[in-house]
Amino acid sequence: MSGFLHRLVFACLLLLPLLGGAAGAQDAASPDLGKPIDGHAGTTYADLIRMVIPDLTAKGDYYVGSSPIEMRHIAGPDNDSSPPEAPSVFSAGVLGIKAGGKERLAMLFDLGESPDSAEGYAVLALYDLTGKPRLLDAVNVATDRFTFFRHPGKLSLGASDDALMISSTHFNSNQGYMSTPLILVRDDRFELIDLINTFDENVCSYRRSQDLTFQAVSDGQPYAAIKATITDKTCDEPAPKAVSNDISVTYRWDKKTAGYVADSDAFEKLAADNEKRF
Question: Strand order of the sheet with strand 57-59?
């Protein structure tokens, strides 16, 4: 299988939709890359990836190529890394979204390990399929080793726009690390709303988990407010005592900055507390 065990069996089958729940319209699909796109009989999903990796070639049941087009990291230049010297693509997640009242296709595919970073290299690409398929934007969204769409993968911000939710993770025998880029598409470009980190821990006597959920809250702004809640839960006696706490941050659209602004630093404080347990 290789390809780091086919990206660790496609990140354990996308973490079995984040451990529960049936797939729905808000979830990404994983199509056969060699099959045509609906409404475009002459264009396959692999052809869309070729707009990012021009020399992409089929090799058995996966695809290989050389350097992708130049792209930025969604979290800013401090997170830039080099793509793999020989990228390989085994699968991709695709999700139809609304952006500025227009229908767009978001596609997420992992290229493998970066040669100069502990993280992987995963491309989130935006396409316009209303006419001849066009690539509108592409960014690296890997903030850890395995990257995929969350379940669900998008959140409606109103009649005209969706936010995208990505998961990037790695884990060892008793700890799991998850970062969640929350992304807006504006003017056909990806913009980071926030990068939210959570941490799970399993030891002999107890389990501590941090589950992240999102809710859109209409507040009369062009983009709905986004309430993010982390349920920090510890269970099983005797150590420590079983508890469950909800930690929420609401992101509201700010016309002055033309961006989302968090109403507290609660997630940063939680991340600092989590680092003490690494």
Answer: 57-59, 62-64, 88-89
